[in-house]
Here is the input.
Amino acid sequence: MSEAPSTAPVCYRHPSRETYIRCTRCDRPICPDCMNEASVGHQCPECVSEGKRTQRQARTAFGGSSIGRAGYATQALIAINVLVMVISAIAGGPRAIAGAGGWFGLMGDDTPVTRWASVLGYAPYVLGGPLHGIAAGEWWRLVTAMFVHYGVLHLLLNMMLLWQLGRYLEEKLGPLRFLALYLLAGIGGNVAAYVTTAPNAPAAGASTSIFGLVLAMIVVNRRLRLDVTQLIPLLVVNLIFTFSVPNVSVAGHLGGLVAGGVVAFILAYAPARRRTQIQAAGCAAVFVVLLIAAVMRTQILLG
Here is the structure.
């Protein structure tokens, strides 16, 4: 005599397995391998995936993504700077790393990479050669200059500060807002160097962005009502360094400081209502002002 077929429900993903457990969201039967613990009961894999897609992402105090806690943007910026230094050393030889003079002989030499990427107003690389620079249409220099360095010491000093300041600010602002701050501070410093220094004086380094991050930390901490007394000495020391060490772009450092402070203020003090739109508009306005300053300087040099 044959047995009556089983009427027990089976897992919708594993039909050979009987189960009396059901997903609390879709009510489909699920076996132990398909169960995911929820606040109430268990959920199936599909409902868990759907919940992750529709779940509202956690935000920082300034509207940024909480993924900034991982510091991916800071790590990426450091990786780009190191990679450019490696390429510069390959193109320029050992003296691109150190031993070319400056800072007790520890600075690196000029290379084809630094010549191509640094801030240069309007001048030839060699006497009698073709004119190069931003006024000659090489506008990329306003961005690329913040990623090239004259030697490993120059690179290490900037990357140490970027690692310390960048991770903190990226956590507070989120990666996208932090990148906007970093890039606009760097462009601000490079525009300041372009506008105020001699057209044949090159300038490069991440310090334009770094100075912006220093003031940004003060602005952000003030907005969060945190103590800023320990940050003031850092700013003062960097300013003393700027004005006392030869061959340092004073205009670039101060321009990055001001631009970074302005952008940080926009990001930190934008009202919660329509915050993202106001932050985006404010950052765009800073970029437009910098662009206008660069265009006016170009007209002067070409006039």
